């Protein structure tokens, strides 16, 4: 097992990883930028190194050099930043260190959404109807969109976090949407390649968590329903999904298992699907990293996914198979962001007072504390409020209780927004699709 790991991230996920490392008796090295000097991940790490490079958590060579100098054997990328960058993974390996994640080739394959689609098609797995490959000209885009039928979605091959994605409801919007998808993709990801998908209306986002070791053992850990989204970004996630029957879950698990096996996947991974109203499911993309919402899976399966990720990276076999996996109870996560709860404008600044909820079945993953300043330079997630119960009804009442108990002063937060959703009768009945927020609230948000 590793003796020391460098954590190439910040915020709640860096803290989350450190907690597991401590339990595994692995020393941690934090890296941080000037604005993060007082961050919790710096305080909780065994050692911390300040980044002098302007690129901060994206400074590939500096991060690897620091890991070597500090005597770490492995680097955990968390999510975001370099977590899905195959160049980073390859360079770590070249330096004789271990990247905690899949190998660079698999990341390159699955990280390119168009290639991932084609790979899934080649194995006969169901994918969202769409074009094959990247579109190269306006003419080709027009023809492909006509063939698919409107509305169509233009998606960046390198896209993530809902960026590089544009909807075209009809033909006269297509070329403008193409242009704006390309330019956003270029500025966010340095890659302007895009492809087309049919836009499926009234779907759920259901994703399957998988774990795979170096020796061909793959297990699936059930699904997460992430349909509560704003502008294609997840806000509430739960496991199991209120929409899945045991038969459908078994079929989606099987496809996910087989897909992971087909690409010889290693580590933790997520296959994202869209589920239409007729309960057909279509592969959308694969995330080759730990996800923000991994917490809800941990609560229903009882495994520490970061620990599993580290064990797999260290070359340990899983040591269990699918028949050992027991999914019990219900879990839900609300992402608490430092944002205005109505306009969703970021609300950075000093948290004057922070008192998280507690009690039975409540987990809070956060890097916030009283006196902490939320930086405008990074994402606005301040806390993940995760609750567990035997049934969905238990979870709904517990989440409402926990949201009411959560006290954060000094910055605006999305707690009131979550309270509105939790009080909604359709949400309570488990009846919602990815356009829920747009329909329920205001089309502007
Ligand atoms: P990103 O990687 O940027 O998060 P995804 O491909 O995961 O992008 O899509 C994010 C969200 O956008 C999905 O959860 C879903 O709500 C919506 N979406 C993506 N593709 C489609 C589609 N073809 N039809 C309808 N909605 C879609």
Automatic annotation (TrEMBL):
<keyword id="KW-0436">Ligase</keyword>
<feature type="domain" description="ATP-grasp">
    <location>
        <begin position="117"/>
        <end position="314"/>
    </location>
</feature>
<keyword id="KW-0547">Nucleotide-binding</keyword>
<dbReference type="InterPro" id="IPR011054">
    <property type="entry name" value="Rudment_hybrid_motif"/>
</dbReference>
<comment type="subunit">
    <text>Acetyl-CoA carboxylase is a heterohexamer of biotin carboxyl carrier protein, biotin carboxylase and the two subunits of carboxyl transferase in a 2:2 complex.</text>
</comment>
<dbReference type="GO" id="GO:0005524">
    <property type="term" value="F:ATP binding"/>
</dbReference>
<dbReference type="GO" id="GO:0006633">
    <property type="term" value="P:fatty acid biosynthetic process"/>
</dbReference>
<dbReference type="InterPro" id="IPR005481">
    <property type="entry name" value="BC-like_N"/>
</dbReference>
<dbReference type="Pfam" id="PF02785">
    <property type="entry name" value="Biotin_carb_C"/>
</dbReference>
<dbReference type="InterPro" id="IPR004549">
    <property type="entry name" value="Acetyl_CoA_COase_biotin_COase"/>
</dbReference>
<dbReference type="GO" id="GO:0004075">
    <property type="term" value="F:biotin carboxylase activity"/>
</dbReference>
<keyword id="KW-0479">Metal-binding</keyword>
<protein>
    <recommendedName>
        <fullName>Biotin carboxylase</fullName>
        <ecNumber>6.3.4.14</ecNumber>
    </recommendedName>
</protein>
<keyword id="KW-0444">Lipid biosynthesis</keyword>
<dbReference type="InterPro" id="IPR051602">
    <property type="entry name" value="ACC_Biotin_Carboxylase"/>
</dbReference>
<dbReference type="Pfam" id="PF02786">
    <property type="entry name" value="CPSase_L_D2"/>
</dbReference>
<dbReference type="InterPro" id="IPR011761">
    <property type="entry name" value="ATP-grasp"/>
</dbReference>
<keyword id="KW-0276">Fatty acid metabolism</keyword>
<dbReference type="InterPro" id="IPR011764">
    <property type="entry name" value="Biotin_carboxylation_dom"/>
</dbReference>
<keyword id="KW-0275">Fatty acid biosynthesis</keyword>
<feature type="domain" description="Biotin carboxylation">
    <location>
        <begin position="1"/>
        <end position="442"/>
    </location>
</feature>
<dbReference type="InterPro" id="IPR005482">
    <property type="entry name" value="Biotin_COase_C"/>
</dbReference>
<comment type="pathway">
    <text>Lipid metabolism; malonyl-CoA biosynthesis; malonyl-CoA from acetyl-CoA: step 1/1.</text>
</comment>
<dbReference type="GO" id="GO:2001295">
    <property type="term" value="P:malonyl-CoA biosynthetic process"/>
</dbReference>
<dbReference type="InterPro" id="IPR005479">
    <property type="entry name" value="CPAse_ATP-bd"/>
</dbReference>
<comment type="function">
    <text>This protein is a component of the acetyl coenzyme A carboxylase complex; first, biotin carboxylase catalyzes the carboxylation of the carrier protein and then the transcarboxylase transfers the carboxyl group to form malonyl-CoA.</text>
</comment>
<keyword id="KW-0092">Biotin</keyword>
<keyword id="KW-0460">Magnesium</keyword>
<dbReference type="GO" id="GO:0046872">
    <property type="term" value="F:metal ion binding"/>
</dbReference>
<keyword id="KW-0443">Lipid metabolism</keyword>
<dbReference type="Pfam" id="PF00289">
    <property type="entry name" value="Biotin_carb_N"/>
</dbReference>
<keyword id="KW-0067">ATP-binding</keyword>
<dbReference type="InterPro" id="IPR016185">
    <property type="entry name" value="PreATP-grasp_dom_sf"/>
</dbReference>
